[in-house]
Amino acid sequence: MTPRRLPFMSLVPGEDAAAVRQAIDRVIARGWFVLGPEVDAFEREFAAAAGAARAVGVGTGTDAIALILRGLGIGAGDEVITSPLSAAYSALAIMMAGARPVFADIDPDRLTIDPERVAALVGPRTKAILPVHLYGQAADMAAIARVAARFNLAVVEDCCQAHLSTAGGRPVGTIGVAGAFSFYPTKNLGALGDGGAIVTNDSALADRIARLRNGGQTDRYHHQEFGINSRLDEVQAAILRARLPLLPAWTARRRALAARYRERLAGAPVSVPPERDAGHVYHLFVVRSGARAELQAHLAARGIETLIHYPVSIPRQPALAATGPADCPVATQACAEVVSLPLHPALGVEQVDDVAAAIHAFADKGTGPVPS
Ligand SMILES: *Cc1c(COP(=O)(O)O)cnc(C)c1O
């Protein structure tokens, strides 16, 4: 078997290319580039798609998290409990808001924050829980909501990998007080550059965040409070509007490809974590291997590109050294074993079959014929 090169993903627009170009041209012709009609319309359309009353467009997913925390009045002296297994930006956003991230270890099956560990870490300074809906699968929101209610904490959802995902049938981002989304190009809904949004059913919070993203301005050149400059721009909003109608079909495609992987990987020498919620949107398809480096090399030799999300847990990042020690052995173990296989809406079923066959061949190494 000599498969063609199979990159992890391609960011060149495909079926959406014409709509994306039209969107860009529309903005250029209008000559209005920041906080204009495209952002207004996208905020309404994205809120509807996310099942929320309001959405506010911002510069990045990281800023979305930080702005929610600031909008809730969380900052210096406060602690926010979050997951050690995520993009480091989840925790960096907590630090940008001035608060301290505290890491609760993950559930070994689901790889999202363990609600019992969260409860054990609540202290007098704890103000919020920031669960991360990792790889497209919601955290255990029912249990997290119980912990939050018991200790009177806000729940802020990191939905950056979970566009259209649901937890027990409820849209992510609407279960806690607010949700943060990223439109970084690789996300399930991506822009051609950076972008982000917050969603919430609390319209006072949405109004406050809309001010904070724009320098804290109330009226032009009147700054009521210390805001930042983090605005979704008109070109990105127009591109996102062109893509949003395609997102349900793209999500269905991701789910179908994931089901195919599960079927084809039966008996393969990797562990495939169970799907814990039917609302999983498969931002990534992640398996585990005790011989990950060898498996990645084996796949690379067959032209199959894989990535690791994530090789280092957040509390072990040097950038986090000042936040204090964290006891997260389950996350550390996951970081040594997880490997993400190619999965995106433009991928073919045959390619999934090729990847699965290549993984099966990894088991045969040494016993079967040496693959050429
Ligand atoms: C991408 C991502 C972020 C950061 O989003 P940006 O738009 O890149 O700032 C935060 N959390 C998670 C889980 C992410 O995947």
What do these coordinates show?
- The protein has about 375 residues and is α/β, with parallel strands linked by helices.
- It folds into 2 domains: about 15-245, 3-Layer(aba) Sandwich (Aspartate Aminotransferase, domain 2); about 245-365, Aspartate Aminotransferase, domain 1 (Alpha-Beta Complex), CATH 3.90.1150.
- The chain is about 35% helix and about 15% strand.
- It has helices spanning about 15-30, 35-50, 60-70, 90-95, 115-120, 140-150, 205-210, 235-245, 245-265, 290-300, 330-335, 350-365; strands spanning about 55-60, 80, 100-105, 125-130, 155-160, 165, 170, 180, 195-200, 215-220, 220-225, 285-290, 340.
- Strands 1-9-8-5-4-2-3 form a 7-stranded mixed β-sheet, with helices on both faces. A two-stranded antiparallel ribbon has the order 6-7. Strands 10-11 form a two-stranded antiparallel ribbon.
- β2 (about 80), α4 and β3 (about 100-105) form a beta-alpha-beta unit.
- α3 runs parallel beside α4 and α5 (about 115-120) runs parallel beside α6 (about 140-150).
- The termini are close together.
- About 50% of the residues are buried.
- Mean pLDDT is about 95; it is low at about 365-370.
- The structure holds pyridoxal-5'-phosphate.
- Pyridoxal-5'-phosphate (PLP) binds near residues 87, 90 and 184.
